[in-house]
Amino acid sequence: MSLRILVVDDHPLFLAGIQEVLADLAAGVLTVREANNAASALDLLERESPFDWIYLDLNLPDKDGMNLLSTIHTLGLDTPVVVISGDDDPNTVDSALKAGACGFVSKASTREELLEAFRAINRGDQFISNALRAPLAEFRLGTKRPRRESIRLTRRQREVLNLLAKGFSNAAIADALGLSVSTVKSHVSTLFEALGVDNRAGCTRAALRLGLID
């Protein structure tokens, strides 16, 4: 197996450790290029042939790593980016994955977990460090399950919600309330966002759970 990997991190000891672990993974030729800041990383991505993976620390001296992650995807590069960070906050993990990272590895990971992560990414799978999975799941559940007191709906939105829960289509809701279909769509989108859902069934379930409808 021949691998070309870019490691973006400004900690020399960690760079050396990553190279050692990667050497155990690669049975063939391994080329590791290092960049200790965002500018150097972008320069290497522009000048050199495509990399198989990018390992990215979020704490860089010249640019926030999250911004660099977004820039990489804005450039249209399809190289898998794995975030390796000491920031274990679930909001950070969630943001990195939403920004396009295919994995998030804690810097507190053991050598065995790093190898597990590298193998998973090499298979094309997503990887999240074991210690981060439960906090991330709880964080995502919390962001998608608002409390009743945080929901502020107008009278019209409640009317749309009640008809939606009864199975009315957007056109049927528009007819029943004397609204345009586009206005109903806007109300439905607002309801989805307020309730943290992405479909009508989920909207109904959330509304029932929160006591917004009978």
N→C terminal distance: 60 Å
Largest sheet strand order:
2-1-3-4-5-6
> How many β-strand stretches?
6
Mean pLDDT: 85
Structural class: alpha/beta
Query: Rg to the nearest angstrom?
Result: 23 Å
Low-confidence stretches: none
How does the major sheet shape up? 6 strands, parallel
Beta content comes to: 5-15%
> Helix and strand succession?
EHEHEHEHEHEHHHHH
Tell me, briefly, the overall form.
Answer: elongated
Tally of separate helices: 10
Helical fraction equals 40-55%
List the helices and strands and how they pair.
Blueprint: E1 3-8, H1 12-25, E2 30-35, H2 38-47, E3 53-56, H3 65-74, E4 81-85, H4 90-98, E5 103-106, H5 111-122, E6 127-128, H6 130-144, H7 155-165, H8 170-177, H9 181-195, H10 200-209
Parallel strand pairs: 1-2, 1-3, 3-4, 4-5, 5-6
